[in-house]
Amino acid sequence: MTQALSFNRPLPEHYSLDAYKKLFADFQEFQARAFHSQPINTLVKARARFVDEVLLELWQHCELSKDKGISLIAVGGYGRGELHPFSDIDLMLLVDKRPGGSQQDAISRFITLLWDLRLEVGHSVRTYKETISLGKDDITIATNLLEMRLLTGNKTLFNELQQAVMADNFWSSQAFFQAKRHEQQQRHAQYHGTAYNLEPNLKANPGGLRDIQTIGWVAKKHFNTRTMRELVAYQYLTEDEYQELMECEAYLWQMRFALHLEAGRNENRILFDYQPAAAERLGFGADGKASVERMMKRFFRTVQRVSELNEMLLQHFEGSILNSQQKVKVSQLDDYFELHGHLIKASDNAVFARRDNLLRLFWHIANNSNITGVHSTTIRLIRQVRRRLMGDLQDYEACRQLFLTLLRHPRGMDKAITLMHRYGILAAYLPQWRNIEGQMQFDLFHAYTVDEHTHRLLKNLYKYSLPEHESEFPLCTDIVKKMEKPELLYLAGIFHDIAKGRGGDHSELGAMDVREFAKLHKLSDFDSKLIAWLVEHHLLMSVTAQRRDIHDPQVVAEFAEKIRDETRLNYLYCLTLADIRATNDNLWNDWKGSLLRELFLATQKAFRRGLEKPMDLRDLIRENQAEALPLLIKQTFIESEILQLWSRIKADYFARYSPKQIVWHCEHILRHKNTDEPLVLVSKAAIKGGTQVFVYTKDQPGLFARMVAALDSKKVNIFDAQIMTNKDGYAMDTFVVLEQNGEAVTSPSRQQSIKKALEQFIAGKPDFSRQKPRLSRQMRQFTVPPKVVFLPGNTKHRTMLEMAALDTPGLLYDIGQVFQQCGVNIHAAKITTIGERAEDFFLISNEQDDALTPEQQSQLKRSLIEQLSQQTEG
User: Fold this and answer.
1) Dihedrals φ, ψ of 736, to 5°?
2) Tens digit of pLDDT for each residue in 550-569?
3) DSSP helix/strand/coil, 184
4) What is the DSSP letter of 470?
5) Distance, CA of 497 to CA of 579 (rounded, Å)
6) Is there a contact between 493 and 535 (Cβ–Cβ < 8 Å)?
7) Where does the record place the region Uridylyl-removing (predicted)?
8) I want to staple 852 with a disulfide (CB 3.0 to 4.6 A). Which of 610, 612, 728, 799 is the partner?
9) Residue range 702-761, pLDDT digits in tens
């Protein structure tokens, strides 16, 4: 029995399924205990040796050792002698001829024994010819064969296959390299080219274990080596690079081992479910979110290092080894850099002794559109000099001048900023940037680390200046074209989240940072104040658009007073749009875009009218009525019946809806003869980015709860609600809904289904008493303590309520039930979901149609918090 780690338990003398299961369970428990005291390499290798011995014993038990025409071969990761607790055990049974009756029975018995032990076994039974043929056609099979290891059986057969696999007529070095690089590109594309995701896959994500293995595979095929260590002698790796790769691999192995132990299965995704326990097992502490953030920060920095090494070494392999005989066109760029094909290369190894050349390199990339990347030898130089830097690059005047020049370059935010981020030069320039590298944001709203989010924001800002993106955001494109200093927008983007993770208000701290930056870089007072204001208020526009009633002229006037002028409005609008889109690819939708655009245009109009003469609510009502009336008359309605209907509707209605919407609603109301039945309208096309659902029906207790229950049953998300009761006791309510993917509801059958559900639920059919909703796997990892705050309303007869809670299924229904029980009327609702967090605003009144008294507020708050706390229990 293996002596590794002093696990001295002997194998059972006679085969017994229970005895072997217990042996595996004991070994698993032993390794879990040893995790804190033994090097990860020892644990992984020991498990492979332990499985070797079990397989050999079972091989003999099935009498396959008597068969001289078969070899038992470990392939893939097991072939390398590496096994994590629940890793696949990949086996190939190499036979001299297709197995007959007795041999086939013995093989089946052997594999069945492994399955009975609940081992994750992948196996194949092939002849030499079959193996070679399949390997030539499939790069995955060829790669597995590259790392095969003989466990027992016919050694001659194994050696013959091993020689054939390394021969050029099986896979040449060039063909193998091209296939593995293409495979890696496809794999990276599946993860959107980044590992900076909420629940990254530490094996398959860019910078993960597969990228380390790919480095080894292509080199092993070319040099016929068995270990990564041997590649140093071939000068494919330096000693430092080898040590760095091994350090990165060890950390990723530790995470993978911990994940397997926590999950009890072959799990390579760092799921929310396992992050806290894995962080504790890895020694990052037991303080929940903080422990996870420490663990993930190290993970993201590790995969960044692996990605950099992977890019450099694969490029070195292609250029210096595979294509060493090919001539590359070389042209001089200046005294320090030259162009090798499409790659920029340092002229000599001492180029970066002048620190400003680290910035000049990226200026060349921005200035020359033919440059597609950095030469592998220069990447190696950047890595070496980066470690030797004393202080920050911004300490040098020449570097500061080049940094500003790069910001002002029309293509500075294209490849140049991406490569500066990738190779750590942005962090070497800005000390604050180093703090946000790999900074995890533990929620469902932010899909990326802080540095990756900011990088994506900068790319979004850059798109505004590109003709091919003009149709995507024409308003931003038009604004940026007229900007005298777009670099100020880029600086606001760089600093907007740079203070996250430090404690305190990151907007205020970031504004302080950018003021220091402006002073050091000798920006004007005006520019400094503008950038600092943008950083400090970068959330203002999104919060106002998503949480306030932007159709209320008073809300627009208050927002405009905070903005103060059109210059700030222009910069803030462009920054806000880029920020939201860079936060999470799944959270942006046309509805949010519509809200921001409406707020921008309304504020711009307020500035141009003069803030001292803002539009009065009565002016807006008269304007909308004057435009809607002739349109309704064209629909064959007479003016008197239109005005009679309007006399029953509260004036606020005509301020909240556009003339087209007023016509749409009123046309159907006037034709709706059976007023005992609800009228439900669903917009056939998106209106301002969302599907609008309009309900006209007799008001009744619990109506809001019934309506949201109906919409919830149809699996649509509610983003906005305008709740209004007419003078005659009829409700005129509008909901803006979107599909789960953020798109408007366009299917006619879906629209009809929503309409029918609302009609049934309003009528009290079906019985919609609900079971306690179940939280999703991801949601169960988060807690959002319910919060209820009453804010000053715009009118003395209304109360504004702000509520935050975990975004559980049926949340709005539960809120509606509480409102009904407390005798509260809803007049408007703003529904905002930020990842796992629901932040909703309601404009409410009491049964006397007045603002809630302090006692009523206190009672409502207690009831809401009690209900929401019950909802998330368990």
Assistant:
1) -105, 120
2) 888 888 989 999 999 999 99
3) helix
4) T
5) 10
6) no
7) 333-691
8) 799
9) 888 889 889 988 989 888 888 888 889 899 999 999 998 888 999 999 999 999 999 999
